[in-house]
Amino acid sequence: MRVLVAFAGGLGHYGPLAPVARALVASGHEVRVACQASAAPAVAADGLDVVVTSAETAGPVRLSALLPLDLDREDRALREGYAGRTARSRAADLLALAARWRPDVVVCDEVDFGAMVAAERLGVPHATVLVMAAGTFVREAVVGEPLRALRAAHGLPDEPPLAMLARHLVLCPFPPSFRDPAAPLPATARLLRPGAGAGAR
To answer: Erythromycin biosynthesis protein CIII-like N-terminal domain: which residues (predicted)?
Structure first.
């Protein structure tokens, strides 16, 4: 089976996906990982086939004082970056990749909205791997408008914007106690212990 593993962010988004990608390769599947250029060396060091996409979410790393928490800034980055520019760019890049190498399934991080749209356009399922334990960051009030626009731009039907995130399998690599009770796991979620495989909810 051909599996496209995709993540929209930096290495913090790759970490939860890495055991899944390695397990797929160990099971004999053909795996390609699509990521930004800054993350490609770490993915390649894992022995995985890497495809660099154009969306770069991380600037050059420089050490500085820890910034105070600014929820408005974080929401803006999610809305305008991940659900906006990055999602548009990644959807286009992954659809172009699929014209040369068509996956049977897409496995992506929970904010790779472009990968989810690309999978839907291709008519293949996607599995979402959670990268944020609490479950309260991705909210319809923040990402609803850009995700509706993204879906419309790709000729996909209008639906509640967060529906596509849990349409298929959701893998949660965090202990359930880390999850905010106000944001329960969806019915499609399965707990995943790195190195141990998927288990029941």
So the answer is: 23-143
Angle at 7 between CA 85 and CA 109, to 5 degrees: 105
Residue 128 lies in a domain: yes
Residue 68 lies in a domain: no
**Please, what's the b/e burial string for 104-142 (b: 16 or more CB within 10 A of its CB; e: otherwise)?**
ebbbbbbbbbbbbbbbbbbebebbbbbbbbebebbeeeb
The type of residue at 158 is D
Number of domains present in the structure of the chain: 1
Assign 153 a pLDDT band (cuts: 50, 70, 90).
very high
Model confidence, pTM: 0.91
Strand ranges of the sheet holding 126-129, from the earlier edge strand across to the other edge:
49-53, 30-36, 2-6, 105-109, 126-129, 170-172, 189-193, 197-198
